[in-house]
Amino acid sequence: MTKYFKLFLFLCLTNLSLAQSTSDANQFIKLDLGRSFAGSGDLTGLQYGVRYQKNIKNQTFWTVGIESTIHDKESIDYFFTNENGEELTGKSRYITSGVQLLSTIGYDFLKNEKHDFSIALGPVIRYQTNSLPHRVDILYPVLTNLPEPIKIETFVEKMRTIALGGVIKLNYHYAFSNNVLIGLTGGFQIDTNADTIQYLMVGIGKKF
């Protein structure tokens, strides 16, 4: 945990030093909310966060933000008809949730008074907790002599993890006025736990 945090802090300070190299004061703070997909896409949920962005120069900018995700899924483990003729369905419900800090350096491909389209990338440090088992075994009554199936979940990975990773984002912003904007952000990230997240968020921000 300590080494990941130190490395993340170093990368953030490197980005911040670039941001301090200009007197351009164009900046905004923005709230984002959207749809998120974890892993191979079978875990779906919400992603939301707040981001501060400051222009540097030559169409480049620096951001820092905090985001949170929550994903869940439901799977059917078995169908079974008991001795009374009742049809039973065994289900599992899993949740993965996390919070993360991130900082990026970006470049505006298109920028004018109303529109800007950009790409950004940088480090992310993520705390995550999940209830996903490594394996699920179903023991049927023919093996146990019990009236209904028994489910056994085996856990190998830690429930709570901290990981360092990288993120890449595509952003579009439209300015309603000199101080209000809306935006669309798509992103992909991967970390040292081999966890991946893809997302699409909409947001509203204020320039200052």
Q: What's the total number of strands?
A: 10
CATH class: Mainly Beta
Q: How can the largest sheet be summarized?
A: 8 strands, antiparallel, barrel
Q: Count of helices? A: 2
Strand order of the largest sheet: 1-2-3-4-5-8-9-10
Q: What helical percentage do the residues reach?
A: 10-25%
Keywords for this entry:
208 residues; mainly beta; Porin; 8-stranded antiparallel beta barrel
Molecular structure report:
This protein has 208 residues and is mainly beta. It has helices at residues 2-19, 141-144; strands spanning 27-38, 43-55, 60-81, 87-111, 115-130, 135-139, 150-154, 160-175, 180-191, 196-207. Helix content is 11%, strand content 66%. Residues 21-25 have low confidence and may be disordered. The radius of gyration is 22 Å and the shape is elongated. It is built from 2 helices and 10 strands; from the N terminus they run αββββββαββββ. It has a single domain, classed as Beta Barrel (Porin), CATH 2.40.160.20. Strands 1-2-3-4-5-8-9-10 form an 8-stranded antiparallel β-barrel. A two-stranded antiparallel ribbon has the order 6-7.
